[in-house]
Amino acid sequence: MQCPSASFRATPAALTVKPRLLRHTLLFLSLVLLMLGIGYIGYNLSEQSGIRALRVNGERQLELHARAVESEINRYTYLPSLLELENSVSHLLLNPTPYRRTLVNDYLEGLNRRSGNRAIFLLDTTGRVLATSNWRDADSFLGEDLSFRAYYQEAVHGRPGRFYGVGSTTGEAGYYLAHGLRYQGRIIGVAVVKVKLEALQERWEKARLQAFVSDENGIIILSSDPALRMKAVRPLSAEDKERLARSLQYHWWALNEWEPRSREVLGDGLEAISFAASDQSSEVAYLAQTRTLNDTPWHFTLLSPLTDLRREAMIQGMLAAVGFAFLAFLLIAWNERRKVIATRLAAREALLTANNELERKIAERTADLRASNARLLDEIRERKQTEDNLRKAQDGLVQAGKLAVIGQMSTSIAHELNQPLAALRTLSGNTVRFLQRGSLDTASTNLAAINELVDRMGRITASLRAFARRSDDHGQARLGKAVDAALFLLHARLERTPLTLHRDFGDVLLAIDQTRLEQILVNLITNALDAMSGQPDCQLWLDGRIDGQTYRLQVRDNGPGIDPANRVHLFEPFFTTKPGETGLGLGLTLSASLATAAGGSLAAHHPETGGTAFELSLPLLESTDSTASPTP
Q1: If I label 218, which of 239, 283, 425, 577 is the partner at 20 to 30 A Cα–Cα?
Q2: Beta partners for residue 122, in sequence order
Q3: What pLDDT score was predicted for residue 547?
Q4: Spatial CB neighbours of 127, under 8 Å, sequence gap ≥ 6
């Protein structure tokens, strides 16, 4: 009966873990929700503050540019009434004759040229053009019936005519100023000035200002964005579209509705609008501020981008959320610290009780540690011995790599030595015969040639001995000397290859053994020659540059490059892409190992233009200003 009782008592202890886990989960979720809420509040507050600042700044710009538009519109209001002072104009309207029309045409042409308008023209009381400043042009207004235009109908009844529209003759948009010309108290004609407003748009574009002007019909007539011109800022009913089409005010423009993706009214003349970006994957938001222009039924709208403002608000919201998370973390850490302190106080007595037991165990552990130290010393000695063996094996592998390179060049070396040997045999035999004949000058010449051939063979064997001798990780090497030595070793193969060699490096002093640098260069140049084998045009670049305390030499060829699947295995031992038994797969591995041992590195690059480039980086000891000139 005791076993079931014990099992029943143990069950609640295991179940106590679940409420604690649930409590921690709820706490974590609550903190996350609070952090998101505070971030959202911070975002809204920052956005509202930014919109207020943007609104104040936009109001100043709105007032400034609106006044500029008003000034541009009103600067020519006096011009139509000025024609009342010209007698030739009144004479033409009262009694039209070809001579008077010619006089007025010339007058209007000169006046238009001085004022810089698009056109100035004169209408009779029937609405037909009697004279115009563009009478010389093929699309002249002369003889046109413009009685249907609203500006004429206003001016002929004695009221100022103000009208923006697209010309029915030229198809060019302009602002029309009309004035009824009076003679003895009655209107005898109408003077009209067509004003160019494109200068405003050009100034907006240069100032990178995003703004537009809409007329009394809600049509955008001026805009810094050409795509918005002749679009309706509000929906047009079918009756409105038919009325505007009959009036020909906008010629044959479709008057499509301007369709923002979203629109939110923030106040009187203030809106937040957004449009789809050019790539249709995002949207661009603006704060639109609108003001009515004086003396016209037009509205000027300024668009201020909200993208940067909302990005800043997002950053502020994230900072608020992170700040809350940091504060919550500090509070949780403080609470955990308080619990830890309470736990330590409770455990202090237990520690005092266990102290004696620990001392006893320490004595036992001390003996164990001494034995462990002895074993550790043995392992250290073994590790040092292993490192020495590894270094010796590496040196042997380096030497084997040198011998492998020499073995690959054995045919070329034999060819290099056979030529002077054959020449020596021929010259020595001839010299004996010339001595027997008494031709001492010819014999002397042959002996000098024999001496040069012997020197050449000595240089070949000396280079091979220097290349084959053992070296260590440290030392110093001249880059120019190492390149010349490597090219000398590969001289026979270079003569058989249609190669153009480009040299652009300084004769710098590097922190590496001279022989090891030569071995690396021989491996890299040999690989480049193998890669370009069979090409009609072989190009090899040796480019060097100083990078701080490091010198970087790049060996680049114009071969077919390395297959992407093989690039990850380039520096693995015994991996080679050469066919048959022409490669052991140790050249790049040894070269990278030698560069690393000298404190440098060897890396492969694969240019988009083709070929392969290996970059050798070594510590720089000394640099000179001299650079090797390109050699074919």
Answers
A1: 283
A2: 131, 191
A3: 92
A4: 145, 146, 147, 148, 149, 152, 156, 190
Give the contacts of 544 (CB within 8 A, at least 6 positions apart). 479, 504, 505, 506, 508, 551, 552, 553, 554
The two structure tokens encoding residue 541: 């670049």
Secondary structure E strands in 99-208: 119-123, 129-132, 161-166, 173-183, 186-195
- Amino acid of residue 158: G
Q: For 419, list phi and psi in degrees, rounded to 5.
A: -60, -55
Strand segments (E) across 228-317: 262-267, 270-276, 283-292, 299-305
Mean pLDDT of 439-467: 68
Same topology between domain 78-193 and domain 199-309: yes
> Token pair of 489, please?
């070793």
Global confidence as pTM: 0.41
**Is 183 buried (19+), middle (13-18) or exposed (0-12) by CB count in 10 A?**
middle
Q: Which residues of 277-305 are buried (b: 16+ CB within 10 A; e: fewer)?
A: eeeeeeeebbbbbbbebeebebbbbbbbe
Q: Which two tokens stand for residue 238?
A: 């079918």
| Fold for the domain defined by 199-309 | Beta-Lactamase (3.30.450)
Q: What beta strand segments (E) does 434-487 contain?
A: 477-478
> Which pLDDT score, from 0 to 100, does residue 628 have?
43
CA distance 103 to 91: 11
Identify the CA nearest to 394 among candidates 338, 327, 470, 467: 470
Chain centroid to Cα 155, Å, comes to: 59
User: Under CATH, which number does the domain 78-193 receive?
Assistant: 3.30.450.20
- pLDDT tens per residue, range 52-73: 777 777 778 777 777 877 777 7
The 10s digit of each residue's pLDDT in 68-111 is 777 777 777 778 888 888 888 888 888 889 898 889 889 888 88
Report how far residue 540's alpha carbon sits from residue 632's, in angstroms, rounded to the nearest whole number: 10
**Which SS3 state, helix, strand or coil, does residue 197 take?**
coil
Tell me the three state secondary structure of residue 229: coil
Rounded CA-CA distance 551/621 in Å is 9
Instruction: Tell me which H or E stretch contains 342.
Output: helix 307-408
Q: How far apart are CA 91 and CA 104, in angstroms?
A: 10
Number of Cβ within 10 Å of residue 445's Cβ equals 15
Greatest CA span in the chain, whole angstroms? 142
Q: Where are the alpha helices (DSSP H) in 140-297?
A: 150-155, 198-206, 238-247
Mean pLDDT in residue range 280-294: 76
C-alpha count within 13 angstroms, C-beta hemisphere, residue 297: 9
CATH class of 470-622: alpha beta
- Interatomic CA distance for residues 90 and 187, integer angstroms: 10
Domain segments of the chain: what residues?
78-193, 199-309, 470-622
Query: Which is more confidently placed, 224 or 630?
Result: 224
